[in-house]
Design goal:
Largest sheet of chain A: 6 strands, mixed
Shape of chain A: globular
Distance between the termini of chain B: 35 Å
Strand content of chain A: over 45%
Order of helices and strands of chain A: EEEEEEEEEEE
Oligomer: heterodimer
Helix content of chain A: under 10%
Helix content of chain B: under 10%
Largest sheet of chain B: 7 strands, mixed
Number of helices of chain A: 0
Radius of gyration of chain A: 14 Å
Amino acid sequence: AQSVTQLGSHVSVSEGALVLLRCNYSSSVPPYLFWYVQYPNQGLQLLLKYTSAATLVKGINGFEAEFKKSETSFHLTKPSAHMSDAAEYFCAVSEAKRGGADGLTFGKGTHLIIQP
Amino acid sequence: DGGITQSPKYLFRKEGQNVTLSCEQNLNHDAMYWYRQDPGQGLRLIYYSQIVNDFQKGDIAEGYSVSREKKESFPLTVTSAQKNPTAFYLCASSVNSGLAGHYTGELFFGEGSRLTVL
């Protein structure tokens, strides 16, 4: 069975500092990997996705993530944090073999806090 | 604009009552999903449907029911059998993964419905 582990339920960084949100996955087959962002009382918005093409994936709002098969990781980064980045971030996995028949498996989320 | 519409945004229920959450999409997606979100728990899959008139249980289906009579609609009923129904419910859709070359894996989400049991 596939699973996702997000290290750190809360991450706090200063405005302008590097953002690093960690995600490790478990999958028996090559995975598709996703990062979503959620603002309070809203739905989830896709930041970026990895679908077996380039291992370094660029997304919206200056975020990027690197797929590392050897480490089973898909960490999310942004060089310089902005106050508007404060939100909940979810990493998710789908098993390509099954074509994601049962949707995505999500991590428990990381709440990103930006200090002025 | 294309998207997913969930209603109502906020809903209050007395214990013992059934409630139905609406989810409509105009993205022409075949697959639709219901997730439940609790603080610190991430998203957990309740039910999903890949085609009209067919649906499958997810990880936490007990106390919930769904129907898929139309491609664009996937309502969720929270029954009185659900012992802890207070949560944020999210509906999503995607391109049918069963069609070769069409799978992207991406889910598109609605804005959610917050259910509170009084």
